[in-house]
């Protein structure tokens, strides 16, 4: 299955992978800036998000992404990814290092990370609400957790719509487990930018700090104002950070 996607601009290929709180619409503020800077910017919906259906059999997000790159004829690509999309980007960059020219990760998740008590409590509360059939309350929990109090109501409504849609699609489908592949983060060769938010859950700053120390060519920026979704809350500021990095490393 080819992931739902759209393309803007011409030039070097760049793929945007969304947070699992959102879908590809989260990149609305980034797409014009990246296309205008000379990139062929592609954004896709991972399975069970946006316009990509839930799979009927075991699947791999990373292999879906590799298949999408093949479909697009993109032998080499820069990856920009947020949160759960960052976990997918790390796997792609580790399994197919020659295909990734640069890696920009915003508040990224990481396979194997031991969650903090706060993150575990969030997951348990979300699960309980969904098991009780209260997707609206689970959606509001996500909006409160992942956006700062400074977020505009327009931003909150955008995240609310994306998260609730994902819940509705996923809850209506059979539960299918993803395929967990073995890979070594030490295989990553792409220059890497790690962005975290000082107002996010501690887990994501910890992950960024660890990856900055472990990856061969990586640097970490912590944004003092940011929560978990900085590209949505202050897009112009994040666009500038991304373009500064990508222009150097593309």
From TrEMBL:
<protein>
    <submittedName>
        <fullName>Alpha/beta hydrolase</fullName>
    </submittedName>
</protein>
<dbReference type="Pfam" id="PF12697">
    <property type="entry name" value="Abhydrolase_6"/>
</dbReference>
<feature type="domain" description="AB hydrolase-1">
    <location>
        <begin position="14"/>
        <end position="240"/>
    </location>
</feature>
<dbReference type="InterPro" id="IPR050266">
    <property type="entry name" value="AB_hydrolase_sf"/>
</dbReference>
<dbReference type="GO" id="GO:0016787">
    <property type="term" value="F:hydrolase activity"/>
</dbReference>
<dbReference type="InterPro" id="IPR029058">
    <property type="entry name" value="AB_hydrolase_fold"/>
</dbReference>
<keyword id="KW-0378">Hydrolase</keyword>
<dbReference type="InterPro" id="IPR000073">
    <property type="entry name" value="AB_hydrolase_1"/>
</dbReference>
């Amino acid at each position: 299955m080819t992931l739902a996607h759209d393309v803007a601009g011409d030039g070097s290929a760049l793929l945007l992978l969304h947070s699992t709180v959102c879908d590809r619409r989260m990149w609305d503020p980034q797409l014009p800036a990246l296309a205008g800077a000379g990139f062929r910017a592609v954004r896709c919906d991972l399975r069970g998000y946006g316009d990509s259906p839930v799979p009927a059999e075991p699947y791999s997000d990373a292999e879906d992404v590799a298949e999408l790159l093949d479909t697009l004829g993109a032998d080499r690509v820069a990856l920009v990814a947020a949160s759960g999309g960052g976990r997918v980007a790390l796997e792609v960059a580790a399994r197919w290092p020659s295909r990734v020219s640069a890696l920009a990760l915003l508040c990224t998740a990481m396979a194997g990370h031991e969650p903090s008590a706060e993150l575990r409590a969030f997951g348990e509360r979300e699960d309980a609400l969904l098991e009780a059939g209260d997707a609206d309350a689970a959606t509001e929990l996500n909006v409160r957790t992942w956006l700062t109090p400074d977020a505009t109501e327009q931003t909150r409504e955008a995240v609310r719509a994306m998260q609730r849609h994902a819940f509705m699609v996923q809850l209506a489908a059979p539960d299918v487990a993803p395929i967990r592949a073995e890979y070594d983060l030490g295989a990553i060769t792409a220059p890497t930018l790690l962005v975290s938010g000082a107002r996010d859950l501690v887990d994501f700053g910890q992950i960024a700090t660890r990856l900055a120390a472990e990856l061969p060519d990586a640097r970490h920026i912590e944004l003092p104002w940011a929560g978990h979704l900085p590209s949505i809350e202050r897009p112009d500021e994040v666009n500038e950070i991304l373009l500064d990095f990508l222009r150097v490393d593309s």
